[in-house]
Design a protein that fits this description.
319 residues, D-Maltodextrin-Binding Protein, domain 2, 7-stranded mixed beta sheet, 5-stranded mixed beta sheet, 12 helices, elongated, PBP_domain, cell membrane, transport, lipoprotein, phosphate transport
């Protein structure tokens, strides 16, 4: 497997592999190849599989798509990055066979799928720690509490300065960067930090996580948040903030110590597509067999082997 942490860093700096947006971006990564199939179970397949959804999950899936091309070169797999909410909208419309999500499916989304006659199965892929980052030149912010985060990020009609959090910090206005409202990352932050209150009006909301990274890199008073893999890929140019004294890393995310910002990452698969489309079944099987290694490679936390085995058993039951 190639060095995917390096690939992530190159991507965010603008290389050809676009990890994409957590909202309305319509870009897709399509992969095809020329290698012979290495499957011991079946002959080479032909067909197509389309997915969409979270940009947080995208590094895992886009890496797997590229790896899968060497195994089944005649299967075209596309992974759009419309954000968790945008991905579910396409899933409901029957435009995609799977939908990536950085939060569990909402009741209204599940109801829409039921109304559309689409049965689905939820597959857990990895764990993420939503990371709070500041500019690398910020020498005063080392740790924030959950209460500090809420005070900073909730709109209260005032201009927010660092001194509002700690009087020993500069009396300079904070510059905010956050994922767009179609993002599962935004939804999760809203649930555990904002608690359904309005986000600060001065925040730059972007559906492109790379825009957030670049914005924080370019302003010494900036603060923002996104998935852990995007921090890992840019850790030489960004500074992560501990939350209540806990730093996001593989150990604290997996154990749940990095609370409340640890979260699961999912893909949702159409049961009918798994049952009727051999290419879809094969790609999902490849995904579950290799998600742990790819998650670790791009900066997320893999599940236990037992969890992946359960996912494979659930997938097999659909065939």
């Amino acid at each position: 497997m190639r060095n995917w942490k390096f690939a992530m860093a190159s991507t965010i700096l603008g290389s050809a592999l676009v990890l994409g947006a957590c909202g309305s971006t319509e870009e897709e990564t399509a992969t095809s190849g020329t290698a012979d199939s290495t499957s011991d179970e079946a002959a080479a397949l032909e067909g197509s599989v389309a997915g969409d959804g979270s940009s947080t999950v995208a590094p895992i899936l886009e890496g797997l798509v590229e790896e899968y091309a060497a195994v089944q070169p005649d299967v075209q797999v596309t992974v759009g990055v419309s954000g968790t909410g945008g991905g579910f909208e396409k899933f409901v419309q029957g435009e995609t066979a799977f939908s990536n999500a950085s939060r569990p499916i909402k009741e209204e989304e599940a109801a829409s799928l039921e109304e559309a006659g689409i049965d689905y199965t939820e597959f857990l892929l990895a764990y993420d720690g939503l990371s709070i980052v500041v500019n690398q030149d910020n020498e005063f912010v080392e740790d924030l509490t959950v209460e500090d985060l809420k005070k900073l990020w909730v709109e209260d009609g005032t201009s927010k300065t660092w001194a509002d959090i700690n009087p020993e910090w500069p009396d300079e206005e904070v510059v905010f960067y956050a994922p767009g409202t179609a993002s599962g990352t935004y939804d999760y932050f809203n649930e555990v930090i904002l608690e359904d209150e309005d986000i600060v009006e001065s925040a730059t909301l972007s559906e492109d996580d790379n825009t957030l990274v670049q914005g924080i890199q370019g302003d010494s008073n900036a603060i923002g948040f996104f998935g852990y893999a995007y921090y890992v890929a840019n850790q030489d140019t960004l500074k992560v903030v501990t939350i209540d004294g806990v730093e996001p890393n593989a150990e604290t995310i997996e154990s749940g110590e990095y609370s409340p910002l640890s979260r699961p990452l999912f893909t949702y698969a159409s049961n009918a597509e798994v049952a009727d489309n051999d290419a879809m079944y094969d790609f999902m099987k490849f995904t579950l067999e290799n998600s742990g290694e790819m998650a670790e490679a791009v900066g997320y936390v893999p599940l236990s082997e037992e969890d992946y085995d359960k996912g494979l058993a659930d997938l097999e039951a659909l065939k």
